[in-house]
Amino acid sequence: MDPLEIARWQFGITTVYHFVMVPLTLGLGPLVAIMQTMWVRTANEKYLRMTKFWGKLYLINFIIGVATGLVQEFQFGMAWSEYSRFVGDVFGAPLAMEGLLAFFFESTFLGLWIFGWGRLPKKVHLAALWIAVAGSIASAFFIIVANSWMQHPVGVELIDGRPVMTDIWAVLTNNTALTAYSHTIMGALAVGAGFLVGISWYQLWQRRRDGIDTVDARGRVVVGERLDIPGRDRVDHSVWIRSLRIGAVVAIIGFGGVALTGDLQAKLMFEQQPLKMAAAEAACQDGTSFSVLSIGNLGAQNCNEVAGIIEIPGILSFLAHGDFTTEIKGVNTLIPEYQALYGTNLPDNPLYGERAGQEINYLPIMEVTYWGFRLMIGFGMLAAGFAVLTLWLTRKGTVPRSKLMMWTALTSIMAPFAANIAGWVFTEMGRQPFVVAPNPTPGGVDGVFMFTAAAVSPGVTGEEIVFSLAAFAVVYAVILVFELKLLVKYVRGGVASAMPELAHPGHDDDPDKPDDPDKRDVLAFAY
């Protein structure tokens, strides 16, 4: 068993799993904070209910995200010790800032928010949530800074074969980091917004199915209420229709931001990692055409086996340079350039083990980069398109009674998640065969790059990594079951599941809990 390949699978699987939680935390947190802000400003009960319900789901996701993220820290030392040794001097600063500054504020003030209902003044309690959300956003920035240095190393000097940071400001303001960060935040907003749309649609559909809400002859909603069902009053309808329409608007804004920042990021990639973008376009020859559809043999790494079916002239040049005429270098031109700069074979170095001297394949797996790029765009467009459709279909105050549309809405939650995951797979897989890509731009430091083949821990066997991968899989499976059960439980229960006082006003079976609704916990399962 090749420990390198197994270690890559392990890190890829655990990272993708963790990243399912990350964009939802980043995207849903600001929306919950806005909801609570509206409640503090207006004292309107619907905003309190929105805050309690969506805050419950936000906290479930946050806790699971922290648990899954811890696993990655172990992998750096267990499977990727040579990588950790190489990047340690650079990564130490942003990761320390993330842990000691951003995550500290995030976790501390989120705890104050959880336990501060009715115990802290409303504005102080609200400030705690905003600080926690800001901590999450700052935490993402420092992680992106570290990742972007791997994509485009700056601010270092090569000393004794290791990069030593000489300019922290250059690392923090790396143009790759700034564009990737803005792209990530916009994508996260799209995820949080899609979450609001799908679940709110389901709740409004339930009200239609149960006969609580009806429509008049002109198709406008007639809001009803069922006093025998906890929380199913007129305010409940306002909670879901407002959440749904907020989600739809934010989803459209998020997609617009993703498109804008993605264009900036693509232009940087053409400059910094040209072979990644050539592989993403299956562009074997120099040219200007964007491939809408190319086909080839499965696993083909030879351009002679790839054929363009549908191409749009000029679009590739526009993505790279903002014009329609500048030719972009293709795979056949770029590979000899990479070989001239970085060699044709892996160095004869003990770090590479049995892989020393092997021929270097600079071309990423084209199926992954090509379809990852298109799935990212395609799923993003689907999510935005459904948001526009949602605004149109709910203009009269409710959702259609169609069960098929309800399932479509719930399924649409996955589209922005899939777009985010496809984008990260494209970004990381397209960097191969480097774990730290070289910086070919003017001012780049010569020699600051690392082949993935040199990054794996030399003393770890393939069998040991397989065992740890199996152990992680079991742990993650258990965590996944708990997360899904909790989310399904509270989504089905609606606002009443997050606010038990709606079912038992003025009464609580636990005498230690205060009767004031504001003093009840929002995360009962956690303590």
Key structural traits:
527 residues; two-stranded antiparallel ribbon; mainly alpha
What does this 3D model show about the protein?
The protein is mainly alpha-helical and 527 residues long. It contains 15 helices and eight strands. The strands form four sheets. A two-stranded antiparallel sheet has the order 1-2. Strands 3-4 form a two-stranded antiparallel sheet. β1 and β2 form a beta hairpin. The radius of gyration is 25 Å and the shape is globular.
- Total DSSP helices: 15
**Poorly predicted spans:** 507-515, 517-527
Helical percentage: 55-70%
Give the beta-strand count.
Answer: 8
The fraction of residues in strands falls at 5-15%
Record the SSE blueprint.
Layout: H1 3-42, H2 45-78, H3 81-115, H4 122-151, E1 156-159, E2 162-165, H5 168-172, H6 175-209, E3 214-215, E4 221-222, H7 234-272, H8 274-280, E5 290-296, E6 306-312, H9 315-321, H10 331-342, H11 366-393, H12 403-412, H13 414-429, E7 434-436, E8 450-451, H14 462-493, H15 495-498
Antiparallel strand pairs: 1-2, 3-4, 5-6, 7-8
Helix pairs in contact: 1-2, 1-4, 1-6, 1-13, 1-14, 2-7, 2-14, 3-4, 4-6, 6-7, 6-12, 6-13, 7-8, 7-11, 8-11, 11-13
Q: What is this entry, summarized?
A:
By secondary structure, this protein is mainly alpha-helical.
